[in-house]
Amino acid sequence: MAPAVVSGRSIRDAWRALLIGGLLATLAACGGVIPKTGGPRPTLPPTGPTTLPSSPQNALAAGVRRGPALSALRMGAADAAGALASFRESCPKLIVRKDGSGLTRPEDWRQACTAAVNWGAGSPALFFSSFFEAARIGDGSSYATGYYEPEIAGGRTPQPGYTVPVYAFPPDLVRAKPGDAPPLSSGRMPLGRYAPDGTFTSYFDRAQIDAGALAGKGLEIAWAADPVEFFFLQVQGSGRLVAPDGTVTRIGYAGQNGLPYTGIGGVMRDQGLVGSGPGQYSGSMQGIMQYVREHPVEGRALMERNRSWVFFKVLNGDGPLGALNVPVRAGNSVAVDPRYVPLGAPVYLDMDRREANGLWIAQDTGGAIKGANRFDTFWGAGSQARLTAGGMSGRGNALILLPKGVLTRLGAR
Q: Angle, to 10 degrees, between the axis of helix 124-131 and the axis of helix 110-118?
């Protein structure tokens, strides 16, 4: 069975899961910090009207209005150039995929995409003002967080100190045949394995895999140095392994063992381990890691409460892949709710956080990124990216850039 295909942006969803509420959401995301020491605490997803269950279910239902002329927006040359490069990478997907927001059709993007390919020395800002017009979804009031690509010690070959196996998707992890197991609430058959007697059963869980259930099956694609950091990278869904010689291997989500995810931050809370009192820890990722390291036996048992296990594949591109299946770029790519923003569309943010201002390209999604005008900005890899992403919590206004003519067709005022 082929591995399930999900967003590389699963890089984001996870570290918010480690908050006291136990949500599996990104740094955002995806959504994802694997700090070695200290660092910012994750920011909570917004609780405003853009995330309420009763929110309109797509951009058309939320309401679409014309925004200001693009010439009135502050577009820096470097910012626009980066956005143009990411837009160009998105175009092969844009011109063929169905837009879940209801705003655009594949043919709407063809003129801009053709021009993007041939846009040479001309002003990048001029490109956007020539082919796009601004739209406001709902009231345009936006909230933005940040995510980044975690980086831990690891390599492709086993060596002293690098003993934590990184497994590929196992061939015996399959979906049950109809009649062999009850279907899931979604109607799909569950993931698991067939025992030697032909009965369908759950796949190996985290404790069993930690104990060696997959050892010797030739599934190892890499080895990590630290089981704790690897646990959090699994929660993220992708990241970078850095070997002692500096070699970097990028790994991405290939599938999951079919067992439910348990946020261990929530488990710690239930056990009274989270708080500000003596013997308690913060509910942030840093606090959880501190507890696990200070109590190795209890910490391993805590991690094994999360029975879910993520399998990986080696990524050979120059960046982690987002939901659009193109690389996400630091400072240029943003995760959105595709019901409200077409994947591949330019987004203009005017926030109370200067770093987040300017043009972005919607190339990713995330479990915590729900509702109109909810965004998660991508900052790359490394310590500065971790600091920026971890501290990102901005509010302001958002505009979606749509190909010229779309708003007229939609009857937007």
A: 160
Query: Helices (DSSP H) in 189-281: which residue ranges?
Result: 206-210, 227-236, 264-270
Q: Which fold, 49-147+320-410?
A: Barwin-like endoglucanases (2.40.40)
Task: Spell out a b/e string for 383-393, using b for 16 or more CB atoms within 10 Å of the CB, else e.
Answer: eebbbbbbbbb
Report the distance separating Cα 12 and Cα 366, nearest Å. Answer: 7
Q: Please, what's the b/e burial string for 46-69 (b: 16 or more CB within 10 A of its CB; e: otherwise)?
A: beeebbeeebeebbbebebebbee
Cβ burial 343-382 (10 Å sphere, 16+ → b, else e): bbbbbbbbbebebbbbbbbbbbbbbbbbbbbbbbbbbbbe
pTM: 0.71
Distance CA 101, CA 141 (A): 18
* Cβ-contact 148, 32 below 8 angstroms: yes
Within 204-357, strands assigned E span 220-224, 238-242, 248-256, 310-315, 333-335, 346-351
Q: Tokens 């998660």 map to which residue?
A: 376
Query: 411 falls in which pLDDT band (50, 70, 90)?
Result: very high
Residues 113-141 pLDDT 10s: 999 998 977 899 999 999 999 999 999 99
| DSSP for 65-111, written as a single string | EE---GGGS---HHHHHHHHHHHHHHHHHHTTS--TTSS--GGGGHH
From its phi and psi, is residue 200 left (phi > 0), alpha (psi between -120 and 50) or beta?
beta
pLDDT digits (tens, 9 = 90+) for 277-296: 998 998 777 889 999 999 99
Question: Measured between alpha carbons, how far is 26 from 249 in angstroms, rounded to an integer?
Answer: 22
If one counts every other C-beta atom within 10 angstroms of the C-beta of residue 185, the result is: 6
- Report how far residue 389's alpha carbon sits from residue 383's, in angstroms, rounded to the nearest whole number: 10
Question: Where in the chain are the domains?
Answer: 49-147+320-410, 171-213
